[in-house]
């Protein structure tokens, strides 16, 4: 009798405690083959079939020894009419040279795949996978990184394995603007002046421009962009006397009415909160990327809040004036140059998450069916070989894009970035006002 097979099958028997075993054996048919030597009586050595690199048997003798290990995998089912353990015949699912059995799972980027039985009779299996668009897509990376594009794409490991639909909630966070807000009249400066070709608030006001924040897995862009714009403008308008980082957490935790925290917020409601209640210093209420309890009383002052104001004259919270809207390229430029960074609302598609450097334009690579609104802080502009762009701070940390910033085409309302831009004046303590 075939010695090798004996060993193979013995090993298989040892591992047979799992729900599905002996995946190492091709399931056949052998004894069930419609050829000669089917289910032979007694011992008949030529009543055999090739299996792996040896032989298996369909004669009665294979069942006679204590370990009836030389029988073909389908001997019991075909010759004795005993239904085999399903695992005996199961075909495993394969992935990258590894075998998986029904119930086993693996992940494919943001999607989970499960090995399932697709045919109960033949016991064939296959992968059943979710088919959601992922935050990171090979198609985008490949498609965008072709010659002739104005920007480059990157596969960010911190975004890999996440679903696009979740990214649109937890990496953005701006709710669609209400009709009244969209109808808000825009401020028109109509200044007929020669604008510099390049303007960067970080160079114009060194040390006054706030650092790039990482909003984390929390749809708080509405709070982060407002706190950023307000901080920059406090510093600029006070000529540094009130240079500080304001806390987006104040908005995230305390501006709860009609807002949804890490699932998103309305920027008009948030600006009104920043105007009516004011914000506190970041050090007093650091960013947590989660809605923790608001520790402040409504409309309190900094002393009551337990926040020691860095500026002697200040007791009230940091409040802003009424927000205003800008919607023309030149007006936006004028406002940034005069008073500092502004907030802009843009439409984000899958490709934007991959931005690494260059001048962004929506590429149409990848998924174009899902989109979200994103509030960002616009800090300047420039021109590269005749290609005009805005310089914008994102809130995905300094590892993303150009040190946390991105550049986007200017003058063409790319991704809607010029269609709703917000400016505001900060309530700088009188003694600190810029002369
Ligand atoms: C063959 O083995 C099965 C168990 O696998 C047993 O039920 C049956 O009685 C055996 N038949 C003979 C003829 O030994
Ligand atoms: C993208 O990055 C992840 C890990 O961060 C990696 O597993 C995956 O293979 C990468 N995809 C491509 C196309 O490079």
TrEMBL record:
Species of origin: Leptosia nina
Taxon lineage: Eukaryota, Metazoa, Ecdysozoa, Arthropoda, Hexapoda
Entry's family note: Belongs to the peptidase C1 family.
Signal sequence region: 1-19
PROSITE patterns (alphabetical): SMB_2 (PS50958), THIOL_PROTEASE_ASN (PS00640), THIOL_PROTEASE_HIS (PS00639)
Domain SMB: 35-85
InterPro entries, alphabetized: Papain-like_cys_pep_sf, Pept_asp_AS, Pept_his_AS, Peptidase_C1A, Peptidase_C1A_C, Somatomedin_B_dom
GO molecular function annotation: cysteine-type peptidase activity
Name of the protein in its database record: SMB domain-containing protein
Superkingdom in the source lineage: Eukaryota
């Amino acid at each position: 009798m075939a010695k090798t097979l004996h060993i193979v099958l013995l090993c298989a028997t040892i591992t047979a405690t799992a729900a599905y075993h002996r995946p190492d054996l091709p399931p056949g048919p052998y004894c069930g083959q419609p050829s000669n030597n089917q289910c032979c009586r007694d011992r008949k050595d030529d009543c055999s079939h090739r299996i792996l690199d040896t032989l298996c048997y369909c004669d009665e003798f294979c069942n006679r020894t204590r370990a009836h290990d030389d029988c073909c995998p389908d001997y019991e089912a075909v010759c004795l009419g005993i239904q085999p353990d399903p695992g005996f015949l199961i075909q495993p699912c394969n992935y990258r040279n590894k075998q998986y059995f029904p119930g086993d799972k693996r992940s494919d980027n943001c999607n989970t795949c499960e090995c399932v039985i697709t045919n109960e009779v033949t016991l064939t299996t296959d992968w059943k996978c979710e088919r959601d668009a992922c935050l990171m897509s090979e198609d985008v990376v490949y498609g965008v990184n072709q010659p002739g594009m104005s920007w480059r794409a990157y596969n960010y490991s911190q975004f890999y394995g996440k679903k696009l639909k979740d990214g649109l909630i937890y990496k953005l966070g701006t709710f669609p603007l209400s009709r009244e807000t969209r109808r808000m009249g825009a401020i028109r400066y109509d200044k007929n002046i020669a604008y510099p070709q390049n303007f960067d608030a970080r160079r114009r006001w060194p040390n006054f421009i706030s650092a790039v924040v990482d909003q984390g897995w929390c749809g708080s862009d509405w709070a982060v962009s407002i706190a950023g714009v307000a901080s920059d403008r406090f510093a600029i308008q006070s000529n540094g006397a009130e240079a500080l980082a304001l806390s987006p957490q104040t908005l995230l935790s305390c501006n709860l009415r009609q807002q949804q925290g890490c699932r998103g917020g309305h920027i008009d409601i948030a600006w009104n909160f920043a105007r009516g209640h004011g914000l506190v210093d970041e050090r007093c209420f650091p960013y947590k990327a989660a809605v923790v309890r608001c520790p402040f009383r409504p409309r309190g002052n900094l002393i009551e809040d337990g926040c020691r104001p860095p500026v002697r004259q200040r007791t009230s919270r940091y409040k802003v004036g009424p927000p205003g809207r800008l919607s023309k390229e030149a007006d936006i430029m004028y406002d940034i140059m005069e008073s500092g960074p502004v907030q802009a609302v843009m439409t984000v598609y899958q490709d934007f998450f991959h931005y690494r450097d260059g001048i962004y334009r929506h590429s149409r690579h990848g998924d174009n069916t899902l989109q979200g609104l994103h509030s960002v802080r616009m800090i300047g502009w420039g021109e590269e070989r005749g290609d005009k762009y805005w310089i914008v701070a994102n809130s995905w940390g300094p590892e993303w894009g150009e040190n946390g910033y991105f550049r986007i085409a200017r003058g063409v309302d790319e991704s809607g970035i010029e269609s709703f831009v917000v400016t505001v004046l900060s309530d700088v303590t009188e003694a600190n006002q810029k002369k």
